[in-house]
């Protein structure tokens, strides 16, 4: 299905134009197109055009797409389902408001995690997480009082081979990720460590890089990951349960998983300046991985924090304008 993978990638790049090129891929008339908050679900090409594509075209002059990772494979969670997944940036000069965010009149990179279900040359289902808090940060209006890690542009893979990879064992890459996810659920409440994650036989490379969304930021090595993400997250949500994935695919040295939502949890510790109140929450998640020599070398993470914070009683978009 590698040919279909390339066709989908070309279609998505063309789709941003007002007059996209005709080709072997199109959007099904009943395609369900779901995007992170505050966008509502959309169905069919007309709603997708009006609710997703047109706002992007108006907001960004010179709008174009840059894929950092683009993979496609059969979905282990969906019999006979072929899916594509991407880490992408929507790039241009941010010159007009976008979903309540005031423009910067400067270059901006709107990062996106994307999953596409493709059947018979038609995109029949789409889920996208846009890191709108990071777009606010780029425009000089950070929606959070601080970040746990480094706020930076998401880089592409260190090996520069993430777009339609030609080498590697996709099933083996996904096996590594699934093994890691299985062990990650159990953790020491003092050290926040989990068995099997690090060390000679661990799932993560010693020099792992973890790239997180606005508010969390990015970090280096397992110790940095624990300090800048895992410890504060588990302090706030110690009963979190994850793994509720609708899609898991592996392609070459890459794997991607997503849940909508993936996590359920209760808010038991303060987080990013918000006081805990015990309420029940859910979290939409997308993870992209690069594996090397049987271990995870890099991890790109998208979390729908606009939706999560709305559940916590905080409107991130209204707070920053």
Topology at a glance:
Blueprint: H1 2-15, E1 26-35, E2 42-43, H2 44-59, E3 60-74, E4 82-94, E5 106-119, E6 122-130, H3 132-138, H4 170-184, E7 204-211, E8 219-220, H5 221-236, E9 247-251, E10 254-266, E11 280-292, E12 295-303, H6 305-311, H7 316-320
List keywords for this structure.
NTF2-like_dom_sf, 12 strands, 321 residues, Cyclase_SnoaL-like, single chain, Nuclear Transport Factor 2, Chain: A, 35% strand, SnoaL-like polyketide cyclase, alpha+beta
Order of secondary-structure elements: HEEHEEEEHHEEHEEEEHH
Q: Low-confidence parts lasting 5 or more residues at pLDDT below 50?
A: none
* Terminus-to-terminus distance: 44 Å
Q: Residue-averaged pLDDT, rounded? A: 94
What does the largest sheet look like?
A: 6 strands, mixed
Structural class: alpha+beta
Taken as a percent bin, the fraction of beta residues is 35-45%
Quantity of strands, as a count: 12
Number of helices: 7
Biggest sheet: strand arrangement: 2-1-6-5-4-3
According to CATH, the fold-level topology of the largest domain is Nuclear Transport Factor 2, Chain: A
Shape: globular
The CATH class of the largest domain is Alpha Beta
């Amino acid at each position: 299905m590698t040919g279909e993978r390339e066709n989908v990638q070309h279609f998505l790049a063309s789709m941003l134009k007002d007059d996209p090129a005709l080709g072997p891929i199109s959007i099904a008339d009943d395609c369900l197109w779901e995007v992170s908050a505050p966008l509502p679900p959309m169905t069919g090409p007309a709603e997708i055009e009006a609710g997703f594509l047109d706002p992007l075209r108006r907001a960004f002059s010179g709008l174009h797409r840059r894929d950092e990772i683009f993979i496609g494979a059969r979905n282990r969670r969906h019999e006979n389902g072929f899916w594509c997944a991407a880490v992408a940036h929507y790039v241009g000069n941010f010159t007009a408001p976008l979903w309540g965010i005031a423009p910067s009149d400067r270059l901006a990179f709107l990062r996106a995690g994307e999953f596409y279900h493709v059947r018979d040359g038609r995109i029949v289902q789409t889920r996208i997480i846009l890191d709108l808090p990071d777009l606010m940060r780029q425009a000089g209006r950070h929606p959070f009082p601080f970040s746990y890690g480094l706020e930076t542009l998401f880089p592409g893979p260190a090996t520069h081979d993430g777009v339609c990879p030609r080498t590697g064992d996709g099933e083996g890459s996904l096996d590594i990720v699934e093994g890691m996810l299985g062990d990650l659920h159990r953790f020491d409440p003092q050290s926040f460590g989990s068995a099997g994650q690090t060390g000679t036989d661990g799932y993560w490379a010693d020099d792992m890089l973890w790239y997180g969304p606005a508010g969390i930021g990015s970090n280096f090595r397992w110790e940095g990951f624990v300090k800048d993400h895992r410890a504060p997250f588990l302090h706030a949500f110690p009963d979190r349960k994850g793994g509720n994935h609708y899609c898991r695919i592996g392609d070459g040295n890459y794997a991607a998983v997503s849940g909508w939502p993936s996590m359920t949890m209760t808010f038991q510790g303060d987080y990013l300046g918000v006081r805990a109140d015990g309420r029940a929450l859910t979290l939409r998640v997308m993870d992209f991985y690069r594996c090397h020599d049987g271990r995870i070398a890099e991890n790109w993470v998208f979390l729908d924090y606009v939706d999560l914070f709305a559940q916590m009683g905080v409107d991130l978009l209204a707070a920053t304008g």
